[in-house]
């Protein structure tokens, strides 16, 4: 028996919109869509191989030398298009669907003769029986089980972070000897890391040993928060544009510069320090804030970030090696 795929799935097991939302990539940023699609397809293929299932419909063909008691299909089977066979004279015929029964209750599905029917005689030749069918849960991502989609998204986040991380922020995974060992064991590293932590377990307690001159490191077992986890706020980016006031006089007004459906993008907001500034003869509280967003062109210090009732004036834009932008902002000291 041979089983081959005759057509590829027409859709991804996870929609691009859901994948980008999980990765905190804004909907108007299409620069990584092709790569994300390739990753989803690859992760899906791996999961299908591990589970012996087809998630999204695709065409399949089985060829056999003769009719067995039951023809085993894929899991799950969506539909059977045709059962063809070579009769004893070598003429190809199509079996009437009323002559067979597709058992979709059993996993995987089977084709058996209908009640009161038997398989017809076939030519004594290889590949005398051919079954054309569709395997999968359905034609699109909306029919894929939720637990499957959650697995694909989790693997996608790991793949995305490991492929787009900033080299200076890679933290190597470490391996340790058993408790009581006084040996120092370097972790697995990449070429981007020049100075590494070396750790050891002494009396069952984790002890950190730093390379001389290196900065303080993370606690044993700590993992860096992924960028997708950090970007947990929806913010608007605004810039001053020419406009008119109620009397028709020329003025400048703040307008959104984002073209997403809600006019906002994903961002992470972190307050760094608090200071007091004297503004217009009065005192306002200003907080030095770091706002992280996915990398996008056209962001300049003349703009501002709005999150709910909070307004942040952008003082500087730091490019994180083309992967992200860090906006150094002041909160509470508006430009207008």
Helix/strand layout:
Blueprint: E1 2-5, H1 16-22, H2 33-51, E2 58-64, E3 71-72, E4 77-86, E5 92-94, E6 100-103, E7 110-113, E8 129-135, H3 146-164, E9 185-186, E10 198-202, E11 205-209, H4 227-230, E12 233-244, E13 250-256, E14 265-279, E15 282-294, E16 304-307, E17 310-320, E18 324-331
Task: State the helical fraction.
Answer: 10-25%
Return the CATH class of the largest domain: Mainly Beta
The rough form would be described as elongated
**CA(first)-CA(last) distance:** 75 Å
CATH superfamily of the largest domain: Bacteriophage SPP1 head-tail adaptor protein
| Biggest beta sheet attributes | 6 strands, antiparallel, barrel
Helix and strand sequence: EHHEEEEEEEHEEEHEEEEEEE
Number of domains: 4
Please indicate the percent range of residues in DSSP E strands (runs of 2 or more).
35-45%
Mean pLDDT: 80
Number of helices: 4
CATH level-3 fold name of the largest domain: Thrombin, subunit H
Give the strand tally: 18
Radius of gyration: 30 Å
CATH architecture of the largest domain: Beta Barrel
Query: Widest sheet: strand order?
Result: 12-14-15-18-17-16
Task: State the secondary-structure class.
Answer: mainly beta
Low-confidence stretches: 166-216
Kindly list the characteristics that best describe this protein.
15% helix; 18 strands; mainly beta; 6-stranded antiparallel beta barrel
What does this molecule look like?
- The structure is a single chain.
- The protein is mostly beta strands.
- The chain has 4 domains: 2-55 and 140-164, no CATH class; 58-135, no CATH class; 172-221, no CATH class; 230-331, Thrombin, subunit H (Beta Barrel), CATH 2.40.10.270.
- Helix content is 15%, strand content 37%.
- It contains 4 helices and 18 strands.
- The protein has helices at residues 16-22, 33-51, 146-164, 227-230, and strands spanning 2-5, 58-64, 71-72, 77-86, 92-94, 100-103, 110-113, 129-135, 185-186, 198-202, 205-209, 233-244, 250-256, 265-279, 282-294, 304-307, 310-320, 324-331.
- Strands 12-14-15-18-17-16 form a 6-stranded antiparallel barrel.
- The longest helix has 19 residues, at 33-51.
